[in-house]
């Protein structure tokens, strides 16, 4: 594989009980690329993202991150890698959730420094300046000592982004990061994400924000019913969709 | 007046026994209850099943029966415990079961997203429980824990059947000796004082946890 492919997912199959939610997905993300995944609810796009960082396990397929296999087919048996390798691979990815999932019993700063201290054994003296820098970057340094309940949705999501960044991930995964926000608050979150993209962070963004997908993404995937229906660069996909399902979805969205 | 003071003094001694049982039981059954709760929700099936049986036994039979069993039945199989130890064993096992169920419901009330956030940040299960889940759980279970704790103060009076001179037994002895109901009133006041202090303590704890909302 060429060196600049960061993530490769091959023939991913996933079932919830009898329901097939992913039916043979293939996907590649290159270093510094921003991939937007769009599609109707229930199309499997969030599940795909959650399979990538093992919040869900797949039935069949291979997942490769920066040359290491998280899961692969060995003698036609789908096999996850050992715990140590898995931890190393999963540590390369940061995740931002629709529901923020900040730790409510910790202040903003504590939310940021908890994982580096626990997981990377960093000293608080070393990580606090990093955390403050990230908070400044998302424009929330003045909120460092407040509890998440005091923040607006947009502020919470920006803290969540900063929290994921304290672990220095190579790849950031966004699972509908603005879907739980009031419309007037989505802008500040999208601005932070745009900033990350400009710094060449590799990103996979499951989103309903067509404008963001069009303007920031390098590549857009349209999913429906557990399959990739169409993919391409945003200009051609939005301006000139080839598939009927893509056309009708975009018509409803725009 | 002198007569009342003469009653109060032995009752203070009795309160000592009551408080001793109360504090030691609490100190043992709270951590034990937490361990049982964690075992009860663990992925290890036999462990989970064992905890279910244990909780079923403890909640399904009277505490009085459990006391009698530890005190009278265990010696028959060669386990002879001093009075206080026997009482503490029965109380601790019983209360740990109730606390375990409170802790379990508290842990299970924490949103799945908290586990997922911790996991994607690289935390292990133990780190997640210790730093993320259990601290939040404690805030949520304070009211029911407070309830159980106040129950424990009153349940300590059951040890009168083990012929230990706790507050209530001392009161009863004086009542029977002097044909005077005053000791019962005094005992009631003592229990109220203890539960008042506990209520205040738990209110303070709840106020402290109120520094964050969810």
UniProtKB/TrEMBL annotation, chain A:
Q: Which Pfam families match?
A: ABC_tran (PF00005)
Looking up CDD domains in the UniProt record yields: ABC_HisP_GlnQ
Its cellular-component GO annotations read:
plasma membrane
Q: Which domain of life is it from?
A: Bacteria
**UniProt topology in membrane:** Peripheral membrane protein
Q: Give its localization.
A: Cell membrane
Q: Which InterPro entries match?
A: AAA+_ATPase, ABC_ATPase_HisP-typ, ABC_transporter-like_ATP-bd, ABC_transporter-like_CS, MetN_ABC_transporter-like, P-loop_NTPase
Show where the ABC transporter domain sits.
7-250
PROSITE patterns linked to this entry: ABC_TRANSPORTER_1 (PS00211), ABC_TRANSPORTER_2 (PS50893)
- Describe the family membership recorded for this protein in Swiss-Prot or TrEMBL: Belongs to the ABC transporter superfamily.
Q: Supply the name of the protein.
A: Polar amino acid transport system ATP-binding protein
Q: Which organism is it from?
A: Propionispira arboris
Automatic annotation (TrEMBL), chain B:
Please, which domain of life does this record's source organism belong to? Bacteria
Which terms are listed as keywords in the entry? Amino-acid transport, Cell membrane, Membrane, Transmembrane, Transmembrane helix, Transport
PROSITE patterns given in the database record: ABC_TM1
One BP annotation, GO: amino acid transport
Q: Spell out the subcellular localization from the entry.
A: Cell membrane
> Which CDD domains does the record match to this protein?
TM_PBP2 (cd06261)
Please list the GO terms describing molecular function: transmembrane transporter activity
How does it sit in the bilayer?
Answer: Multi-pass membrane protein
The family line of this record is:
Belongs to the binding-protein-dependent transport system permease family.
Q: Which Gene3D superfamilies match?
A: MetI-like
Q: Which residues form the ABC transmembrane type-1 domain?
A: 15-202
Pfam families for this protein: BPD_transp_1
Q: Which residue ranges does UniProt annotate as crossing the membrane?
A: 17-41, 181-202
Q: Which GO terms describe its cellular component?
A: ATP-binding cassette (ABC) transporter complex
Q: Give the PANTHER family listed for this entry.
A: L-CYSTINE TRANSPORT SYSTEM PERMEASE PROTEIN TCYL (PTHR30614:SF0), MEMBRANE COMPONENT OF AMINO ACID ABC TRANSPORTER (PTHR30614)
Its recorded name reads: Polar amino acid transport system permease protein
């Amino acid at each position: 594989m060429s060196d600049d492919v960061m993530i490769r997912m091959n023939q991913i199959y996933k079932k919830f009980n009898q329901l097939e939610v992913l039916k043979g997905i293939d996907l590649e993300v290159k270093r510094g690329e921003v991939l937007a995944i769009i599609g109707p609810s229930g199309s499997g796009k969030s599940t795909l993202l959650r399979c990538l960082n093992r919040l869900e396990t797949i039935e069949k397929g291979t997942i490769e991150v920066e040359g290491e296999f998280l899961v692969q087919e060995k003698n036609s048996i789908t096999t996850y890698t050992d715990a140590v390798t898995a931890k190393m691979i999963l540590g390369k990815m940061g995740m931002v959730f629709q529901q923020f999932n900040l730790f409510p019993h910790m202040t903003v700063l504590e939310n940021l420094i908890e994982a580096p201290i626990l997981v990377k054994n960093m000293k608080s003296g070393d990580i606090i300046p990093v955390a403050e820098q990230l908070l400044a970057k998302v424009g929330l340094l003045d909120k460092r000592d407040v509890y998440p309940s005091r923040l607006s949705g947009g502020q919470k999501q920006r803290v969540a982004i900063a929290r994921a960044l304290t672990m220095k991930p190579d790849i950031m995964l966004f699972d509908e990061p603005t879907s739980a926000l009031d419309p007037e608050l989505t802008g500040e979150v999208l601005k932070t994400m745009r900033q990350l993209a400009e710094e060449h962070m590799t990103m996979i963004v499951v989103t309903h924000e067509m404008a963001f997908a069009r303007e920031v993404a390098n590549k857009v995937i349209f999913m429906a019913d557990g399959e990739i229906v169409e993919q391409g660069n945003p200009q051609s996909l939005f301006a000139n969709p080839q598939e009927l399902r893509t056309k009708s979805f975009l018509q409803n969205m725009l | 007046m002198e007569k009342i003071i003469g009653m109060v003094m032995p009752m203070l001694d009795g309160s000592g026994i009551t408080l001793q049982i109360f504090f030691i039981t609490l100190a043992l059954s709270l951590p034990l209850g937490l361990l049982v709760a964690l075992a009860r929700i663990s992925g290890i099936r036999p462990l989970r099943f064992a905890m279910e049986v244990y909780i079923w036994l403890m909640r399904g039979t009277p505490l009085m029966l459990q006391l009698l069993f530890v005190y009278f039945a265990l010696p028959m199989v060669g386990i002879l415990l001093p009075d206080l130890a026997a009482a503490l064993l029965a109380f601790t096992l019983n209360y740990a079961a109730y606390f375990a169920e409170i802790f379990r419901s508290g842990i299970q009330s924490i949103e799945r997203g908290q586990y997922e956030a911790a996991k994607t940040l690289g935390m292990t299960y133990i780190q997640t429980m210790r730093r993320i889940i259990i601290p939040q759980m404690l805030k949520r279970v304070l009211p029911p824990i407070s309830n159980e704790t106040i129950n424990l103060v009153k349940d300590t009076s059951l040890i009168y059947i083990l012929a230990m001179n706790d507050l209530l037994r001392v009161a009863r002895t004086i009542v029977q000796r002097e044909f005077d109901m005053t000791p019962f009133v005094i005992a009631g006041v003592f229990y109220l004082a203890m539960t008042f202090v506990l209520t205040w303590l738990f209110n303070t704890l709840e106020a402290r946890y109120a520094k964050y909302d969810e």
